[in-house]
Amino acid sequence: MRSTIGDLDILVAARDSKPVMEAFTNLSGVVRVLDKGETKSSIEFGDGVRAQVWVHPPEKFGTALQYATGSKDHNVQLRQLALDKGLSLSEHSFERTNGKGEILCATEEEVYQTLGLPWIPPELREDRGEVQAARQNKLPRLIEVKDIKADLQVHSNWSDGKLTMLEMAKAAAKRGIQVIAFTDHSVSLGVTGGLSMEAHKKQAAEIRKTQDKLGDSILILHASEVEIKADGTLDYPDKFLASLDLVLASLHTSLRQPREKVTQRVLNAIRNPYVDIIGHPTGRLIPDREGADLDMDAIFKAAAETGVALEINAHPARLDLDDTYARRAKEMGIPISINTDSHSEADLDMLFYGVAIARRAWLTKEDVINCWSTKKLLDWLKKRG
Ligand SMILES: [Zn+2]
After folding, report:
1. 161, 165, 230, 309 — which has fewest CB within 10 A?
2. What distance in angstroms lies between residue 282's CA and the mean position of ligand 1's atoms?
């Protein structure tokens, strides 16, 4: 669940590896078989991505999966713990260092149990304090997709989304979402069909009609993804922002300004009393564009002071905030919002990736405003203005 990966390693538990290797090397899309053996085969797809399959006997699958999952630094810690117990841990087994045989593990749970630890979720295995937390039985109860009740950045065909608000709301409700905020783009982002204040009046009327059709299956919030302009001002006057249910402010333009200037723009947005969420805070696009050169210390400090939420944008090209920033935000008590930034129905399923980043950041459902009850969320929004 890292933001990016290199190649793919797939592990299979089987006694007879032959049919597995046959199926794997004959997958459609494979342009080259680099290696075909009894325990390992290796292929290349047309787009250059490489994948390996490893076949292990079922009784050794736990150590093999744990070893392959890593990370290297996490595994170094486990091997040390094993040595303290007179065991040598490898991908095949725990071998007793006194020469009296080995312990086989069919599951990862057995691996950790042998070390006297609870199972550690893979997202935490980065040597960032997880082994110590596990020893003290203080692992966080990580957030899950089913905990998310609200999607607070969604686009409709009022700006650059593909579907109507009714279609989008129905698709979200089908996925268990109870609150949806339409954050169509603001006026200066012309390429996306950004909305004028006049157009917002019409959208508000359309929202009322749409809400009537939806009944209480899902609640629509009238929101906007407001552009933080190059001069640091927002795209609408405060009086208008105050009339919206939710304001999400984002950078899309002039991201390469000098550090001080671009940081100041985000700080202005954080300090605006009507802004509720900062969308995709750094503006990075994977793999093409680094985020803006922001002074994140200043941004976290201001966010902690004002109580504005920072987004984990779930789009695989964004994943912004990333895991290390999101963890810092949590430690500073800053609310986090995980949103899909959907422009189509299929985009709604990208929520999974945002939650994955949150899990890597040790987040629980208490840290994320999208998990709150509708009442708590609305009260929070009201209090913010
Ligand atoms: Zn955006």
Report:
1. 230
2. 11
